[in-house]
Design goal:
9 helices; mainly alpha; 204 residues; elongated; 0% strand; 75% helix
Amino acid sequence: MSTRANSSRERILATAEAIILENGFAGTTIDEIIVHACITKSGFFYHFSGKTELARALIERYIQTDTDVFMEISERADSLSEDPLQRTLIFLNLFAEMVAGMNELHPGCLAAAFTYETQQFDDQIRKRIEDGMLHWRAIIVERLNQILEKYTPKVEVSINSLADMFTSSVEGGILLARIYGNNEALTDQVQAYRTHLRLLFDDI
């Protein structure tokens, strides 16, 4: 596929994601996407056969982008310390700093938005969302297990639940940021999770 075609496809995806996060999937039409993406109807259907294929491409793009961000921050954090707890605390700081550095309000989570409208999607899309969430959980679980090899938690804890707490902190933080109109609400939730880990594992 040519660079121009790739550019058109990416423009459609970026435009569709922005509109869906504002209006919902059911409330977004192909015609609306076409107008805002400044593309012809034939140009849209050159890339996507319809809304289902568009949804599949959107969620794949979203999950891959977030995974890439997670891995980039993880690699940077791991290069700054040899201690597993400190590496994770640094990871959370870097994540919070990334959000704080955003010029605009966090647009929202496409995976969460799709989950709210799960009846709109087929089993393949629903499974991809589940797999993406489980993969993100696995990234955090791996970090937590490394911490457990060196540190004893002050209270009994489920590692999966503790990993899911990261996801719920981020997703809840995004919701609060949208309500309050300020990304600080999201960074505060990430920092609260970071504090929880310090209190659970660190000798402070």
